[in-house]
Amino acid sequence: MRKLWSSLLGMYYYRKKFGKGGGNLFRKLNSSLTNELFVPGIKHSISLRPNTSDIPTFKQLFYESEYEFSLDFKPRTIIDGGANIGLAAVYFSNKYPNARIYSVEPEPSNFEMVKLNTKNYPNVSAFNSALSANDGGFIEIQDVGLGNWGFMTKEVSQENLEKSSSLIPTISISKIMKDNNITVIDLLKIDIEGAEKELFESSFESWLPNTRVLVVELHDRMKPGCSKSVFSAICKYDFSFSHKGENLIFTNNARLS
Fold first, then answer.
1. Percent of the chain that is helix, strand, coil (3-state, to 5)
2. Which residues are bridge partners to 142 per DSSP?
3. Which of 4, 34, 192, 253 could form a disulfide with 48 if both were Cys (CB 3.0 to 4.6 A apart)?
4. pLDDT surpassing 60 at residue 220
5. Is the overall model pTM greater than 0.85, yes or no?
6. How far is CA 128 from the centre of its chain?
7. d(Cα 237, Cα 72) in Å, to the nearest integer?
8. Residue with more model confidence, 163 or 3
9. Which residues, 6+ apart, have CB-to-CB distance to 23 below 8 Å?
10. Cα–Cα distance measured from residue 225 to residue 189, given in angstroms and rounded to the nearest whole number
11. Whole-angstrom Cα distance, residue 79 to residue 190?
12. How does pLDDT run across 76-107, given as a tens digit for each residue?
């Protein structure tokens, strides 16, 4: 009886959130039929791997509206750091159809899902790389048991490169900007499972003051020192602060106009 009541309640809330299509969406999410989900308001279908963290990731973005916050402008350039399976890129593509989106995801199986979910969005460019303060380096993927949304990265030293069987190249935000003639990042989303500690420790001077809005999720529980690193860098510039759910939102007052 409790399971039935929970199911009916979930159905009700999904229909309230998504309208007529909400009921079918709820049924598919709860019956592992997630290879082709049609979300009201989203142009193209979304694919999720059943019985994985793809499901709660989807719920965070589309049911809980994790990235639903107001901006005083329409972003034209978005960098999606830690793209996971591409759902943030899909969300931003539908909300800001004129934006160019650069999605960066290091973990290979997640990256395949990024390509699948963004294949119908020509404004999305995907990189199978790890965001880093430095270019030309390599990382290894670490599975710390948190599922597909919780892979961590570890930098590989030059002397250990030959010992690693799976290396992922690093890419800096500065290089993405340079290679794509970006002078201002309108929206920068960072969700990189603790690697934000190193990202904000050095070489941020070329991109952070040129970022209008920064959305970052901190992971001190996974890597102590993340908050200190991010706030130490932010405090060098004139940013305002707010938050929504797990995300901290920083607005660059010098770039408001």
1. 35, 20, 45
2. 152
3. 34
4. yes
5. yes
6. 13
7. 20
8. 3
9. 11, 14, 15
10. 19
11. 8
12. 999 999 999 999 999 999 999 999 999 999 99
Q: Which residue has the tokens 């001077």?
A: 205
CB 37 within 8 A of CB 46: yes
DSSP string across 168-223: EEEE-HHHHHHHTT-S-EEEEEE--TTTHHHHTTSS-TTTGGGEEEEEEE--TTTS
Q: Which residues contact 120 (CB under 8 A, 6 or more apart)?
A: 43, 44
> Is residue 256 within 8 Å of residue 72, measured between CB atoms?
yes
Q: Residue 140 is encoded by which pair of tokens?
A: 């290894």
Tell me the pairing of strands 185-190 and 168-171.
Answer: unpaired
Q: CA 11 to CA 227: how far, in whole Å? A: 38
Q: Are strands 77-81 and 100-104 parallel, antiparallel or unpaired?
A: parallel
Selection from 201, 215, 223 nearest residue 75 by Cα = 215
Distance set, CA 144 to CA 56, 83, 105, 149 (Å): 18, 18, 17, 10
For residue 100, give the 3-state DSSP assignment.
strand
Give the pLDDT mean for 33-40: 93
Confidence at residue 166, expressed as pLDDT on a 0 to 100 scale: 73
